[in-house]
Amino acid sequence: MDLTQVSSTAKARRADRAAAPRDASAAADLHDALFDERPFLRRLTALDWLFALALVAGAGFALSRYHAHMNYYDKLVLCGTVPALVVLGWRWKPARLLMAGIAVLSIGAIQIYQGDLARADQAFFLKYFLSSQSAILWMSALFVLATLFYWIGLLSRSETGASIGSKLTWAAVLMGFVGLMVRWYESYLIGADVGHIPISNLYEVFVLFSLITALFYLYYEKHYNTRALGAFVLLVISAAVGFLMWYSISRDAQQIQPLVPALQSWWMKIHVPANFIGYGSFALSAMVGVAYLMKERGVLADRLPALDVLDDVMYKSIAVGFAFFTIATILGALWAAQAWGGYWSWDPKETWALIVWLNYAAWLHMRLMKGLRGGVAAWWALTGLLVTTFAFLGVNMFLSGLHSYGKL
Question: Where is this region: Disordered (predicted)?
Fold first, then answer.
């Protein structure tokens, strides 16, 4: 061995010894992050508390500025929402940036309006970006583009394509929530008696459904570190967007209308979101079921997550959806007692909601008690989407009853 080789070997060994402490330190940091046994609150940083303080300050501003438009129950809902958002931001860090973006763009749009609804067609940023209709159109276009890029990423094994799809989905969620927030403000510009939270008709709840489904997917994408499911989940969101566009064009549904008497209740602010968290989770589980069935049959098998991962996502989605759908059903019964004098009247919407609840209750029972897994569970989740779709949309199209204010 010549002197040059000896020198090179010595340098390499010295470099290895120098790098070893750094590698050990990095491994220790990773271990501490994964197995930190301190109580959750002890693990929070100054940034976490600053985020919580910002949300509390925002809620305080809303209460001081708009308390005249809020009754006791509205204020209670707002105060209850703040800790829920704080915990969400603590547990899921990307949600913080989303909340900040929604706040900045929504407040910016409100400032541009200057209390005059006519500025929606006059001010550049309102007309093309931040009015409710413009923002929701952007949301729709971004969801369709995200679907395209997710499929490009899946079929071509392109991480870049999937990454673009993920970023487009985040942007779509941002614009959709901005659209809903601004629409809420626009309803009050029309008239104080018209103003209401924008979850009162099919146009608005289809926007809400798309956003909730996308948010749940983005959480699972981060949690399981895979973007392969985006191609499937975004399909059902794009279908909702397609219906939304058809409904807007054929029925002029994007116009803000006064609430019908049955919906003039604070119950709507908690019943409808809880319901659509359930619907969104059920839709997501069905599309994951499609991915499971394809992988089981060898279609795109090498590009999809492992079967046990798909099974776990499907189970967690149904479990979360079932919990919120149960809460929504109970809240709906309480609302019905106040509005119609009885907790249950076997109205078509109520009956089909019960069918949906029983379907997923049976799925969870078979899972927990009998170990239901595999293709049967996936087919059942997919069939559940058909049942849920009829309860969500079909009842409005083909049946009439106390909920007929939602007819197409």
Answer: 1-20
